[in-house]
């Protein structure tokens, strides 16, 4: 069971002890952060589970025996070292959630059979090495969430953009043209770029009249600006402070 070049060895006993029953009645194998480098074959004894969490391990490959898990609805493989998926992934027709975020998947590593997952609602391919995504992903008509962030995508196929039920599509931090840095917005406010100080005697009559006109307009604005209101004076009001002043000598004596 110790960690070695092949990672931690998972026995059937360990796997059974990692089984959890969720509030919805589904059974989940929770094998996250266990140093697994090779998909445990002993899991075939538990192939009727509905959910498997193998995230945060050291998996490089998903074997074709994944097709034995026909009841699987939820599969979390994020934060491994997976660079390709087997075609058999497409046989998991009940799968609704597939998280492949933070792996080493390339475009070639995505099999065409991925598009056979017609019940898939959440697909996370973020933080991988994808330069493009297949246009056939547009056939996943039940997709609600699609993660494509932190890849090398330069285009999103129209078939994917127009998925009928898509609600959230994260494509941040990709070199997409539509996310190129926009030009600085045009400043519509007229601002002074240069200021020249001259004496009044050096101005011609027309310039002098213009300056005097603008100065008069400025004075009008200043006259229209309300000044600070005067502090109200309540002469008949006795405040604690006024009483204290009258009696302070008596307090000092006490």
How would you describe this structure in keywords?
254 residues, alpha/beta, Leucine-rich repeat, LRR (right-handed beta-alpha superhelix), eight-stranded mixed β-sheet, 4 helices, 8 strands, disordered N terminus, Leu-rich_rpt_typical-subtyp
Characterise the protein shown here.
With 254 residues, the protein is an alpha/beta fold. It has a domain at 27-179: Ribonuclease Inhibitor (Leucine-rich repeat, LRR (right-handed beta-alpha superhelix)). 17% of the residues lie in helices and 10% in strands. It contains 4 helices and 8 strands, in the order αβββββββαβαα. An 8-stranded mixed beta sheet has the order 1-2-3-4-5-6-7-8. Helix 2 (158-161) links the parallel strand 7 (145-147) and strand 8 (168-170). Mean pLDDT is 83; it is low at 1-5.
CATH class of the domain at 27-179: Alpha Beta
Indicate the mean pLDDT: 83
Radius of gyration over alpha carbons? Answer: 36 Å
Order of helices and strands: HEEEEEEEHEHH
Q: Name the CATH superfamily classification of the domain at 27-179.
A: Ribonuclease Inhibitor
Largest sheet: 8 strands, mixed
Q: Uncertain regions: pLDDT < 50 for 5+ in a row?
A: 1-5
Strand order of the largest sheet: 1-2-3-4-5-6-7-8
Number of helices: 4
Q: Report the oligomer.
A: single chain
Shape, please? elongated
State the end-to-end distance.
84 Å
Question: Which structural class should the secondary elements be placed in?
Answer: alpha/beta
């Amino acid at each position: 069971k110790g960690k070695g070049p092949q990672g931690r060895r998972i026995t059937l006993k360990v796997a059974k002890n990692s089984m959890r029953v969720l509030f919805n009645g589904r059974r989940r194998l929770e094998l996250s952060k266990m140093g697994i480098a090779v998909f445990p074959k002993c899991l075939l004894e538990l192939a009727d589970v509905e959910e498997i969490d193998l995230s945060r391990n050291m998996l490089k490959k998903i074997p074709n025996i994944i097709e034995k898990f026909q009841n699987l609805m939820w599969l979390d493989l994020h934060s491994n070292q997976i660079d390709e998926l087997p075609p058999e992934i497409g046989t998991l027709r009940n799968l609704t959630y597939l998280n492949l975020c933070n792996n080493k998947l390339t475009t070639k590593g995505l099999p065409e059979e991925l598009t056979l997952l017609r019940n898939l609602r959440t697909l996370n391919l973020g933080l991988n090495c994808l330069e493009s995504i297949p246009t056939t992903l547009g056939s996943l008509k039940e997709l609600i969430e699609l993660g494509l962030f932190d890849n090398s995508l330069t285009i999103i196929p129209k078939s994917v953009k127009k998925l009928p039920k898509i609600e959230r599509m994260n494509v941040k931090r990709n070199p997409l043209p539509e996310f190129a840095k926009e030009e600085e917005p045009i400043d519509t406010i007229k601002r002074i770029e240069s200021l020249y100080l001259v004496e009044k005697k050096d101005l011609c009559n027309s310039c002098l009249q213009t300056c005097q006109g603008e100065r008069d307009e400025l004075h009008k604005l200043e006259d229209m600006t309300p000044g600070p209101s005067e502090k109200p004076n309540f002469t008949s009001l006795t405040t604690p402070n006024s009483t204290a002043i009258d009696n302070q000598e008596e307090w000092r004596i006490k």
